Amino acid sequence: MNEENKKFDMIAIGDTTQDIFLEVSDASVQCDLDGENCRISFDYADKIAVDKKTDVPAVGNAANHAIGAARLGLKTALYTVVGDDVQGRLAGDVLKENNVDPSYLAFDKKNGTNFSAVINFKGERTILVYHEPREYKLPEFAETEWVYLTSASGDGVESLHKQVEEYLEKNPSVKLSFNPGTHQMHLGREALEPLLAKTDVLFLNIQEAAEVLGVKTKDVKELAVGYHGIGVKNIVLTDGPDGAYVSDGSTIWYLGIFKGPVVERTGCGDSFGSGFMGAVIQGKPFSEAMLWGNSNSTSVVQFIGAREGLLSPDAITKMIDENPEVRPQEFAKI
Q1: Four-point Cα dihedral 187, 191, 195, 200, nearest 10
Q2: Closest among 154, 204, 162 to 179, alpha carbons compared
Q3: How many angstroms separate the CA atoms of 174 and 172, rounded?
Q4: What are the φ/ψ torsions at residue 306 (nearest 5 degrees)?
Q5: E strand or H helix at 86, and its extent?
Q6: Are 74 and 10 in contact (CB under 8 A)?
Q7: Has residue 109 been placed in a domain?
Q8: pLDDT digits 0-9 by tens, 138-163
Q9: Has residue 41 been placed in a domain?
Q10: Residue-level pLDDT at 218
Q11: How far, in Å, CA of 77 to CA of 144, rounded?
């Protein structure tokens, strides 16, 4: 599949967290008249009953992506900083169990492991996130074909970006896949442009893509043209239950979603990304990579947590075969 001297197919870079899922039914949702800008509501100063609690260690965009790619047969590793605590040590065990090399797991002796409380109500999730302050020091990586950069702490994200830029300059054969997290997007377009110019595959949802560019449009072609103008080679724009778009700079493809039950959507984007990149790294065309991503995300939303439903290649093939009516279509030319 890859050159024999490659140690890794992909090394993921980003934060790891401990998720606790709280399934509730005693809540309500209020939206604007147009059905957008919705808010979940609870009774103030009251005790809210939780129907079910699920603990999921060692998750986060980077870990989800590394584990998802490993399940597709790729050799992956993860650089992440966790607390020198029970949750941090457990993260190492989870990586090993899922065939992700934990060699680049770093332990922070001053700050604990990140934590998220995920409120699950009627299949949608609202996440309360606590990120510990972090200092990142990129280790000396073994040879790899790709690096995947994603969510990092706001305290150290700019330093991490500079280190990744320097790494890519020293290793021009390494390709970058980039899925900016919240703190990264808040840096703004100007701060992100040096990394975007080096990005081979960029993952954003349509709202995020407009936010980073500093525009109000949701026009897919306009957004794609904007990122290609910065230097992004290929961009994947996801649109939740409305599907996904992929642009290579000349053609934009669209793919709707497979039908299936939805338990909760945490990890939906990560699973699409790992499925997509798993196919790309194995030399498959974007049209097939979209189907791999779609299969992975369709499976993950049927479970609680971002890891449980990640698929093997055989399971992906089976799901694609079971949904022959959903195939990529040409959306526009650039």
Answers
A1: 70
A2: 204
A3: 5
A4: -90, -5
A5: helix 86-97
A6: yes
A7: yes
A8: 999 999 999 999 999 988 999 999 99
A9: no
A10: 93
A11: 9
Q: Which residues, at least 6 apart from 180, have a Cβ–Cβ distance to it below 8 Å?
A: 150, 151, 192, 204, 208, 212
pLDDT at position 5 = 53
CA distance 10 to 292: 17
Amino acid 25 reads S
Q: Which residues contact 43 (CB under 8 A, 6 or more apart)?
A: none
* CA 206 to the chain's CA centroid: 14
- How many angstroms separate the CA atoms of 309 and 311, rounded? 6
CA angle 271–275–280, rounded 5-degree value = 145
What percent of the chain lies above the pLDDT cut of 70? Answer: 98
Measured CA distances, 179 to 140, 212, 280, 324 (Å)? 22, 12, 16, 29
Asked if residue 279 belongs to a domain, the reply is: yes
Sheet holding 114-121, edge to edge: 52-59, 17-23, 114-121, 124-130
**pLDDT tens digits for range 185-230:** 999 999 999 999 999 999 999 999 999 999 999 999 999 999 999 9
User: In this structure, what CATH number is given to the domain that contains residue 240?
Assistant: 3.40.1190.20
pLDDT at 3: 43
Cα–Cα dist 125/119, whole Å: 5
122 assigned to some structural domain: no
Encoded amino acid at 90, one letter: L
Expressed as residue numbers, the domain containing 66 is 8-17+58-113+133-333
Residues 6+ apart with CB under 8 A from 192: 161, 180, 184, 185, 212
**Into how many domains does the chain fold?**
1
pLDDT digits (tens, 9 = 90+) for 18-71: 999 899 998 999 998 887 789 999 999 999 999 999 898 889 999 999 999 999
Backbone angles phi, psi at 114, to 5 degrees: -60, 155
